[in-house]
Amino acid sequence: MMKLKSPPVNSLSLELLTEFAISLEKLENNRACRGVIITSSVPKIFSSGLDITEMCGKSMEHYTEFWRAVQEIWLRVYSSSMVTVAAVNGSSPAGGCLIALSCDYRIMAENPKFSIGLNEAQLGIVAPFWFKDTFVNVVGHRIAERSLQLGSLHSAPEAHKLGLVDELVPEEKLMEKAAAVMAQWLALPDHARQLTKTMMRKPVVDRLVAHREEDIKNFVTFISKESIQKSLRMYMEMLKKRKS
Ligand SMILES: CCCCC/C=C\C/C=C\C/C=C/C(=O)SCCNC(=O)CCNC(=O)[C@H](O)C(C)(C)COP(=O)(O)OP(=O)(O)OC[C@H]1O[C@@H](n2cnc3c(N)ncnc32)[C@H](O)[C@@H]1OP(=O)(O)O
C-alpha cells in the first residue's frame, strides 16, 4: 500500500512527486510486489492536485523540473506493470484525480462531500493532452469533454454515475474493499493482464513519450504568461478567503 502523506492537503509538490516516483520504482523492481493500493493518510483529502505554489512566481528552470516530475509520475502509474487500485478516501481535484484515473480501478468513499474531477478550467488553465487522454479512456469522449470544458468537480455519487470511479463504498469499508479488488485482479496470471494493459494504454503513453520535451516547453511558456500567473494568484487568494 502507498499512502500519500503531505498535510494539510496532499498537494503534489516537487518533493512529494519525487518521493512518490522513487517509492513506485522500488515497488516496480520488487518481483514479489504484484500490486499497489494508492490512498491517503490525510483525513478527507486524497490529494488537492498539483501544488499551485510550484507553478507561481518561480523560474523557467523550476517549472521545467516540476513539469518533468509531473510527467514522470503519470508515466510510472499509468504504465505500471503492477495492479494499481486507487482507494479514494477524500476529495481529489485535478492532479489528484489524474493519479486516481491512472490506476486500474477506483473505489471511492461514498461521502457526498468528497469531490473528484479535472477542474483545471476553473483555475484558468488547461488540462494537458495526456490528462485529457487518460480521462477519455475512463469515461468516454462526451463526458470528458463536458467535464473538462466546465472544469467540473463531481460529488462521489455523481462521479460513480459517470464512471469516473468504479465503485462507492462506505468510508469504513474502503480499505477492505480495495484489498478484495486487489485479490480479484491478482488471481489472474500477470503476463496476460500486463500485456492487455500495455495494449490498451500504449498509444497514450507513447504520445507523451514522443512529445515529452515539447510538452515541457508548452507548459513552461503557458504557465509563465502573466495572465496565467494572475489567474493562479487569484485562485490561491480565493482558497484562502474561503477559509476565513
Ligand atoms: C495549451 C498548453 C497547455 C499546457 C499545459 C498547461 C497547464 C496545465 C498545468 C497544470 C495542470 C494543473 C493541475 C492541478 O492539479 S492544479 C491544482 C488544482 N487543485 C485545486 O483546485 C484544489 C484546490 N484546493 C481545494 O479545493 C481545497 O483546498 C481542498 C483540497 C478541497 C481542501 O479543502 P480544505 O478546506 O480542507 O483545505 P483548505 O482549502 O483550507 O486548504 C488548506 C491549505 O492548503 C492550500 N492548498 C489547497 N490546495 C492547494 C494546492 N493544490 N496547491 C497549493 N496549496 C493548496 C490552501 O491554500 C490552504 O493554505 P493556507 O496557507 O491558507 O493554510
UniProtKB/TrEMBL annotation:
It comes from the Eukaryota. SUPFAM superfamilies: ClpP/crotonase. Its EC number is 5.3.3.8. One of its GO terms (cellular component) is mitochondrial matrix. The keyword Lipid metabolism applies. Pfam families: ECH_1. One of its GO terms (molecular function) is delta(3)-delta(2)-enoyl-CoA isomerase activity. Its main location: mitochondrion. It is found in: Mitochondrion matrix. It is an enzyme of class 5 (isomerase). Pathway: Lipid metabolism; fatty acid beta-oxidation. It catalyses: (3Z)-dodecenoyl-CoA = (2E)-dodecenoyl-CoA; (2E)-tetradecenoyl-CoA = (3Z)-tetradecenoyl-CoA; (3Z)-decenoyl-CoA = (2E)-decenoyl-CoA; (3Z)-hexenoyl-CoA = (2E)-hexenoyl-CoA. Keywords: Acetylation, Fatty acid metabolism, Isomerase, Lipid metabolism, Mitochondrion, Transit peptide. Coiled coil: none annotated. One of its GO terms (biological process) is fatty acid beta-oxidation. InterPro entries: ClpP/crotonase-like_dom_sf, Enoyl-CoA_hyd/isom_CS, Enoyl-CoA_hydra/iso. Key enzyme of fatty acid beta-oxidation. Able to isomerize both 3-cis (3Z) and 3-trans (3E) double bonds into the 2-trans (2E) form in a range of enoyl-CoA species, with a preference for (3Z)-enoyl-CoAs over (3E)-enoyl-CoAs. The catalytic efficiency of this enzyme is not affected by the fatty acyl chain length. PANTHER family: ENOYL-COA DELTA ISOMERASE 1, MITOCHONDRIAL, ENOYL-COA HYDRATASE-RELATED. Homotrimer. Belongs to the enoyl-CoA hydratase/isomerase family. This is Enoyl-CoA delta isomerase 1, mitochondrial. It comes from Zosterops lateralis melanops.
